[in-house]
């Protein structure tokens, strides 16, 4: 038996793969062998042939950001003519539309606005919680929390505790990109949150009883070792806290960014390989989410055979990836058709994977 086959057999049997073994898979494993092994692991964690999805909305309350990440096409400077901070009345209108469409949650994120302070975030959460108590507020990435900690000179845990008291129900995995600091420095995301700072926010959230997601945006010119480092860091934190609900990898979209034409971006082949290896690496994660948003519906459907047990959100609104020139959209009927067409049973869920 060759070493790739031996590693895949170990993963299928439930053994934990080392960083060295994961690197071998990235360099040598055939695509279909990875898919077969990842599917076996997926069914060990989620035995039923069910694929979940959620109806929610991605609301960006501001596009103003103090940082200038090279991979981002969304941010604006405060003085730009199209810079905005949404009034609370506009937020309420968007949430009302979401509830009317059957949505159960809101993903609320923004740029890191240099002038907004903790009382603004607390007020926004209370405003939404009081008017829509049935809606799950999945809000604020690690860089937003880290900025508030720095500007107020407060411990990260205290910032999160105050946001939780105001209505924060869970924290998304945004701002992770690649959790390897040399890559973060090259793409200018280290300033907003180092690897250690991103992990600290999620560790403190878990300690306070909040669940979070782990994400990875890849294809920004990083090597495979950086991706392995990312997987090992989130696996280690999950060992310590068990607070992550899911792992969500997706590919960098280059249009309108400072990295456009500067790196070899990832297509469907690299996406499916990385998704499968993520499923094999993260033996302590129950859920791995496939990405139709960045790769399109066909690759999204294929992700169900490469380790994904969830297809994410209908996403009634999405602005960040759209700013990079990607406009994939799904309605509920199409989502359920894609899942059934792949041989699975669709099932709606809530933000924390509770069934509806």
Automatic annotation (TrEMBL):
InterPro entries to which the protein is assigned, alphabetical: Aldolase_TIM (IPR013785), CofH/MnqC-like_C (IPR045567), Cyclic_DHFL_synthase_mqnC (IPR022431), Elp3/MiaA/NifB-like_rSAM (IPR006638), F420 (IPR034405), FO_synthase_su2 (IPR020050), rSAM (IPR007197), rSAM_sf (IPR058240)
Record protein name field: Cyclic dehypoxanthine futalosine synthase
The keyword DNA-binding is annotated on this UniProt entry: no
Chain positions recorded as S-adenosyl-L-methionine binding sites: 71, 177
Keywords from the UniProt entry: 4Fe-4S, Iron, Iron-sulfur, Menaquinone biosynthesis, Metal-binding, Oxidoreductase, S-adenosyl-L-methionine
Domain Radical SAM core, first and last residues per copy: 51-283
Organism whose genome encodes this protein: Thermoanaerobaculum aquaticum
Membership in a protein family: Belongs to the radical SAM superfamily. MqnC family.
Biological process (GO), any one: menaquinone biosynthetic process
Pathway(s) where this gene product acts: Quinol/quinone metabolism; menaquinone biosynthesis
């Amino acid at each position: 038996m060759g070493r790739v086959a031996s590693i895949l057999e170990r993963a299928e049997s439930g053994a934990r793969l080392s960083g060295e073994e994961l690197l071998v898979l990235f360099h040598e494993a055939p695509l279909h062998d990875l898919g077969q092994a990842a599917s076996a692991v997926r069914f060990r964690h989620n035995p039923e042939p069910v694929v979940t999805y959620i109806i929610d909305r991605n609301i960006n309350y501001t596009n103003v950001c103090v940082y200038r990440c090279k991979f981002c096409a969304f941010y604006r400077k405060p003085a730009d003519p199209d810079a905005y901070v949404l009034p609370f009345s506009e937020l309420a209108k968007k949430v009302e539309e979401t509830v009317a469409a059957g949505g159960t949650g809101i993903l609320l994120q923004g740029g890191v606005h240099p002038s907004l302070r903790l009382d603004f975030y607390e007020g926004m959460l209370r405003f939404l919680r009081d008017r829509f108590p049935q809606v799950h507020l999945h809000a604020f990435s690690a860089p937003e929390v880290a900025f508030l900690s720095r500007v107020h000179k407060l411990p990260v845990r205290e910032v999160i505790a105050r946001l939780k008291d105001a209505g924060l129900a869970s924290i998304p995995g945004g701002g992770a990109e690649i959790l390897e600091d040399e890559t973060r420095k090259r793409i200018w995301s280290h300033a907003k949150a180092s690897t250690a700072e991103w992990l600290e926010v999620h560790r403190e959230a878990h300690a306070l009883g909040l669940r979070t997601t782990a994400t990875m945006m890849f294809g920004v010119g990083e090597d495979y070792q950086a991706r392995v480092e990312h997987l090992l860091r989130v696996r280690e934190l999950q060992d310590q806290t068990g607070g992550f609900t899911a792992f969500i990898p997706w590919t960098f979209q280059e249009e309108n960014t400072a990295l456009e034409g500067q790196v070899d971006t990832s297509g469907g082949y690299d996406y499916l390989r990385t998704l499968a290896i993520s499923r094999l690496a993260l033996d302590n994660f129950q859920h791995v989410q496939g990405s139709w948003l960045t790769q399109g519906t066909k690759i999204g459907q294929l992700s169900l055979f490469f380790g994904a047990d969830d297809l994410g959100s209908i996403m009634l609104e999405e602005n960040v990836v759209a700013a990079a020139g990607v406009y994939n959209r799904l309605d509920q009927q199409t989502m359920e058709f894609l899942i059934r067409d792949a041989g699975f049973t669709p099932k709606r869920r809530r933000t924390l994977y509770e069934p509806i």
